[in-house]
């Protein structure tokens, strides 16, 4: 449904896509991560796609990130629009 986030997903292709945007997340967070393991994600169709994901960034550290993937015809790179650290594995996305 356009405008609403879909269900949580864990497929390898989507997880790899989000993992590939690590540098965008690091730029928003203002730091680099030795660990960057995408746990799950969900998407929202807008004028492009918002990818909201839970990412493991340390031994027991997690973050929630939102990456905006612009429509292909723009030729623009995705951008990380939100980084929220201090999360746990059990915190639901969006919290």
Q: The biggest beta sheet, please?
A: 4 strands, antiparallel
Please provide the count of β strands: 4
CA-atom Rg in angstroms? 13 Å
Beta-strand fraction estimate: 35-45%
Query: If strands are numbered along the chain, what order do they take across the biggest sheet?
Result: 1-2-3-4
Helix percent reads 10-25%
Return the string of H and E elements.
HHEEEE
Based on Cα principal axes, name the global outline. Answer: globular
The residue-averaged pLDDT reads: 95
Would you kindly provide a brief summary of this structure?
This protein is α+β, with helices and mostly antiparallel strands and 95 residues long. It has 2 helices and 4 strands, in the order ααββββ.
What are the defining features of this structure?
alpha+beta; single chain; 2 helices; 95 residues; 39% strand
Explain how this protein is built.
This protein is 17% helix and 39% strand. With 95 residues, the chain is α+β, with helices and mostly antiparallel strands. It is globular, with a radius of gyration of 13 Å. A 4-stranded antiparallel beta sheet has the order 1-2-3-4. The mean pLDDT is 95.
Secondary structure: elements and pairs:
Blueprint lengths: L11 H8 L2 H8 L7 E10 L1 E9 L5 E9 L8 E9 L8
Antiparallel strand pairs: 1-2, 2-3, 3-4
């Amino acid at each position: 449904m356009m405008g609403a986030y879909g269900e949580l997903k864990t497929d390898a292709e989507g997880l790899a896509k989000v993992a590939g945007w690590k540098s965008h997340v690091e730029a928003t967070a203002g730091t680099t991560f030795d660990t960057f393991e995408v746990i799950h994600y969900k998407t929202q169709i807008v004028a492009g796609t918002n990818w909201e994901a839970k990412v493991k960034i340390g031994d027991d550290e997690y973050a929630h990130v939102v990456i905006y993937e612009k429509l292909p015809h723009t030729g623009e790179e995705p951008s990380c629009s939100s980084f929220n650290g201090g999360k746990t594995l059990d915190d639901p996305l969006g919290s």
